[in-house]
Amino acid sequence: MSRPIHWGLLSAGNIVGQFARDFAVVENAVIHAVAARNGDIASAFAREHGIAKAYEGYEGLLTDPDIDVIYIGTPHNLHFEHAKAALEHGKAVLCEKPMTVTPKECEELQRVAERTGGYLMEAMWTYFLPPVQTALRWVQEGRIGRICQIKADFGYPQLPFDSKKRVYDAKLAGGCLLEMGVYPVALAWLFMKQDPTEVQVVSRHAPNGVEDDLAVLFNYADAVATLGTSFRCKLQNWAYIIGEEGYIAIPDFWRAREASLYVLDDRVDHFVDERATDGFHYEAQAVTNDLLAGRAGSSVVAARDSLAIQRQMAMIREAFCDDV
């Protein structure tokens, strides 16, 4: 392809705004259009970010012949529908996490991608952040030995409770598991690449029954992961990868800017990402590069990764559903 990759944004919400701001440093690509249900909102978003086209509704974006790839940032429960439509219109898809709300939906969406020959990737932007990639390399190099424990949590207060808020709305797949818990689950999968043999969950629930605080234990054959997520309180939001010979600490791992390697009490290595952006451009650049190279999918967030994350979140949900 001789011209830059043309992106379309399906939604003009907050996370899409962050994505658009970071896109300024993406090479060989341009955001060509944005679509929102409200045309005035789409137009205002386009003006703010210097985007050529704005569509009221999504059909114009899906059928725009100049668009190569669509980034989907709608509520969780709409991801399947919108990603499926984009693939069937011949567009590559980068879909916000969680890509779907059930493993069944994930499998079906991946079948659509296979049938249409389309590119489909979940926007697990944390996987692309250099500190996380550095931590993964340290583990692969054997610098902490065999992994014994993983600790990761992600939580911010979403108070006061309001059943009309998107994050609490069961009809919109609300709840802290899909909204925030996807991050620690994905982090554990990245380093373990296996399902737990046992899942234990302590759950708390909002007045409408939606889970708003979870403490999760994944028991593997020879390791454990303790994971947490919450709408009730601010958690530490760090990740620790603990091995027999050392450990790695990643502050604010979901948006990581640094990682440290420790042996006992001594920090023996330290990586800092001096980026001026939030970090969404790393995944956007990776997708752009994949499309320019004609790759069928991502090697960083592969289909098996997205399906595993869905499968493990379903295991968590099954473990706490009796508590509701």
- Given the C-alpha coordinates, what overall shape results? globular
| Structural domains: how many | 2
CATH structural class of the largest domain:
Alpha Beta
Number of helices: 9
Structural class: alpha/beta
Low-confidence stretches: none
Helix content: 25-40%
- Lateral strand order in the biggest sheet: 8-9-10-7-11-12-13-14
Q: Average pLDDT across residues?
A: 97
What is the CATH homology-level superfamily of the largest domain?
Dihydrodipicolinate Reductase, domain 2
Distance from first to last alpha carbon = 52 Å
- Order of helices and strands, N to C? EHEHEHEHEHEHEHEEEEEEEHH
> Radius of gyration, Cα only, in angstroms?
20 Å
Task: Explain what the structure shows.
Pfam families: GFO_IDH_MocA (PF01408), GFO_IDH_MocA_C3 (PF22725). Residues 11-121 form the Gfo/Idh/MocA-like oxidoreductase N-terminal domain. GO terms for molecular function: nucleotide binding; oxidoreductase activity. Residues 132-248 form the GFO/IDH/MocA-like oxidoreductase domain. The structure is a single chain. With 324 residues, the protein is of the alpha/beta class. The protein folds into two domains: 5-126 and 279-289, Rossmann fold, CATH 3.40.50; 130-272 and 309-323, Dihydrodipicolinate Reductase, domain 2, CATH 3.30.360.10. It contains nine helices and 14 strands. It has helices spanning 14-22, 39-49, 59-63, 79-88, 103-116, 130-140, 176-192, 281-293, 303-320, and strands spanning 5-10, 29-36, 53-56, 69-72, 92-96, 120-123, 147-155, 198-205, 211-219, 224-230, 239-243, 247-250, 258-263, 266-272. It has an eight-stranded mixed β-sheet with strand order 8-9-10-7-11-12-13-14, covered by helices on one side. Helix 4 (79-88) packs parallel to helix 5 (103-116), helix 5 (103-116) packs antiparallel against helix 9 and helix 7 crosses helix 9. It is globular. It starts with a strand and ends with a helix. The mean pLDDT is 97.
